[in-house]
Design brief:
Layout lengths: L16 H38 L23 E5 L9 E9 L4 E12 L7 E8 L1 H7 L2 E7 L2 E8 L3 E8 L10 E8 L9 E8 L1
Antiparallel strand pairs: 1-9, 2-3, 3-8, 3-9, 4-7, 4-9, 5-6, 5-8
Length: about 200
Amino acid sequence: MSPRGRADLSPRGDFSPARLRLADVRVKGWGIVAGMKRRLALACAVVLVEGGCQNMPEAYAPPLQRPAVENFHPYRMQAIVSMSDDDAQTHFVQDITSLATSSWRWTGKKPTVRVKARTGADLRYTIDFVLPEKHFRETGPVNIAFLVNDRVLDRAHYGTAGNQHFEKAIPEGWVIAGQDITVGAEVDKVSADLGIVLARIGITQ
């Protein structure tokens, strides 16, 4: 059955001239209405687009042009070995044991890792470790030397147990870009061949 109001063009339809003229008028009328609807929809779309541009969210607005910052490093280099890294063991050089969890490892007297830096400028040594309370009662206060390519960057005295962080700039010329670098720490006293609990060690920029 044909939709209501349209000419029935099936074989059973009425093909009389009056019937066809009426159908023609209705079809033309629908074409005019459809055209008006399309023009109205286009006008509404233009208004919405223009209004949207005028009220564009700040997050999508063009960024402000800012002057260049001196010594700006858009991609700062990091060569950190975290004990939680899947490939951490590939960087071990010595004295990092298999006594571990997913985030730390016990070390011996001189834990050392090997990393590589793409630059030798503006680098910093960094290490995060723990002096466990029970272990500390056996060793007492300890002195730790922090090493870059077996050169002593600095020494620090630790008189209390707990979480520790050390960080210091590496002098120019100590690191050659693209070459292997050894980064380590040396504890003056150990107990049962255990030194510190290491979380991460390496160099940053």
